[in-house]
Structures are given as C-alpha cells and as structure tokens.
Amino acid sequence: MVWLLISLAWLGMPSLATASDPAARVVYHADFSDPRRFSAMLTSINNMAVHYENELMDHDIRIVAVSHGIRFLTDDPLEDSPFAEDDTLAEERDNLRGRLSSLISMHGVKVELCDITRSALDLPEDELYDGVSMVPSGVVRLAELQNTKGFAYIKIK
User: Fold this and answer.
1) Contacts of 115 (CB under 8 A, 6+ apart)
2) Cβ contact 94:52 at 8 Å
3) Are 41 and 30 in contact (CB under 8 A)?
4) What pLDDT does residue 23 have?
5) pLDDT in tens, 49-80
6) CA 117 – CA 139 distance, rounded (Å)
7) Are 48 and 28 within 8 A, CB to CB?
8) Of all residues in the chain, what percent carry a pLDDT higher than 70?
C-alpha cells in the first residue's frame, strides 16, 4: 500500500523535462564587454552544438544577453553609453557577427536580449541582429530557464 502511494505521488509530480523536450538544454550568460570572451563563448557554443549534432541529440542552446552583452547584438556603436564600442570591438565586430549568425542559422541557437538593457539605451529593436528576441528581464529569464526549464547555466570567464 505504501509503495502504491509513493508511486502515485511520484507520477503526479511536475517534471522539468518531457519526452518531446531536447536532451540537452544549456543557457550561456553574456553580460560582459570583452570581445575575446564573446569569441570564446561562440567557440564553446559551436563545439557543444557540433557534439550534440554528431551524437544525434536534440538540443536547445541559448544566449541570454544583459548589460554589456548588448554590444555584441547590434552594429550600433552605442556611443555615449557605458556599452560604447571600443577599438577592439570595432575590429572584431564583423567576425563576431558572422559567427553568431552562423550559430543561429546552422545550429538553431537562440539569442535573447534583456529589454531593460535595450530600452535604457533607447535602442530600437530593428537595430538588433536578425534572430535576436527580447525578454522582459534577462536575469529573470536566466532564473526561469534554470529553475523551471532544466537548463544548465554556463558563463565564460
């Protein structure tokens, strides 16, 4: 009888994953300004996506950008803001944009930007790269993905 009650209780518990969910769910947190870190993050994401695809594993890989991370999602130099383009970013922008675009189009990586950051800069959404979607709050989105959707959290240092 106890076993039956435990089994019924277990069946009624909410699950973080269902049979239709991807086997791998990973979110990368981009809140930094260093183009080398962003480049390292893109390399890590590409390696991960290629591994999962070689293993025939469904995956959901996301980047959630907040604060300084906005620098990598627009060609706007964001002058007169704390996130203004510097010489290193200006030099690397085309390469980073191309690699990000490739991850989105070839590997289905999703990119989400904190709307608090975007609106604080008064940056129009059409100034963002294709494939970037808005979330009301980046940090809330990170918590939601980790706590209710079962995503692993990665931040490149």
Assistant:
1) 134, 135, 136, 137
2) no
3) yes
4) 81
5) 999 999 999 999 999 999 999 999 999 999 99
6) 11
7) no
8) 86
Interaxial angle between packed helices 87-107 and 35-54, expressed in degrees from 0 to 180 and rounded to the nearest 10:
20
Q: What CA–CA distance (Å, rounded) separates 40 from 156?
A: 7
Yes or no: say if 80 and 46 are a contact pair by the CB < 8 Å rule.
Answer: no
**CB neighbour list of residue 139: distance below 8 Å, 6 or more residues apart:** 66, 114
Assess contact for 72 and 38: CB atoms under 8 A: yes
pTM over 0.90: no
Amino acid of residue 51: H
- The whole-angstrom separation of Cα 81 and Cα 68 is 10
Beta strands per DSSP E along the chain: 24-30, 59-65, 110-114, 132-135, 152-154
The whole-number pLDDT of residue 48 equals 96
Residue in this structure with the two tokens 């604080």, named with its chain if needed: 120
